[in-house]
Amino acid sequence: NCSRTTLRFVRGQHYPFSEPVLRRAAEVETDFDPYLRMLGAIVLGGDSGLNGLRRIVEDRSAPESVRCCALIAFVGRSTWDNVAPTIRFVLSTDKQQILTVAVWAVGIAQDDRPIARVHELAETAGEGLATAIAQTLKRLGKTESEPTLLALLNHSSEAVRVQAAEALSTVGTTRSVESLLRISSESGSADLKSTAHSAARKIQGRL
Fold it and tell me: How far apart are CA 116 and CA 112, in angstroms?
């Protein structure tokens, strides 16, 4: 809901913003409402706006949904070098919704520096975070992610299992083939069985 509202707000404005709008955006920088502060930061843009977004992301007292929207806006408006420290901060926390956004951003940036933390998060990840982890590990393409992805093949969510199998098609070794072929012959959805079988064949063709 936060993301949709933010997009509607931004799309409904005319660029460049008028002076009265920019003044109002500057005024809400210190507002008690983090959602208003986020909208003000988006309108302000530049270093001031980026710093405002970063502060909201790092404000543990702000609603997680607002922090997620602020992080998406921050990632989309700044360089990765500027964003990376905030991503590291978020990855050190335990809120799965914003962790999902941070892991997604790591994959988009193809930054493998936090990969150990991404592996660690998989141990307790719910469906959304686990899906993001599998997709990110595929993008990073590191063989060291194989044990984590093999563990995700046993996740309670079938959607996660499909993503883990797909990722193993890229980073898996012969160690993964037996597990993938077993899944492809077990009861389950056609999508899961097909993805697992295809991943096993891709690994065998690669090695």
Answer: 9
Strand (E) or helix (H) holding 116: helix 115-121
* pLDDT tens string 5-17: 554 555 455 455 6
Alpha carbon distance 116, 96 (integer Å): 17
Cis before 114? omega within 30 = no
**Residue 48: closest CA among 28, 18, 63:** 28
Residue 187 CB contacts under 8 Å (≥ 6 apart), including other chains: none
Residue 79 neighbours by CB distance under 10 Å: 9
Beta-strand ranges (E) seen in the chain are none
Measured CA to CA in angstroms, residue 187 lies from 7, 34, 193 at distances of 42, 47, 8
Tens digit of pLDDT for each residue in 166-205? 999 999 999 999 999 999 998 778 999 999 999 999 999 9
The pTM assigned to this predicted structure is: 0.87
CB contact burial 42-53 (16+ within 10 A = b; e otherwise): bbbbeeebbebb
Nearest Cα neighbor of 127 from 108, 99, 106 is: 99
**What does the pLDDT read at residue 2?**
52
Return the structure tokens found at 29. Answer: 């920088």
Residue 163: C-alpha distances to residues 23, 62, 91, 184 (Å): 46, 31, 21, 14
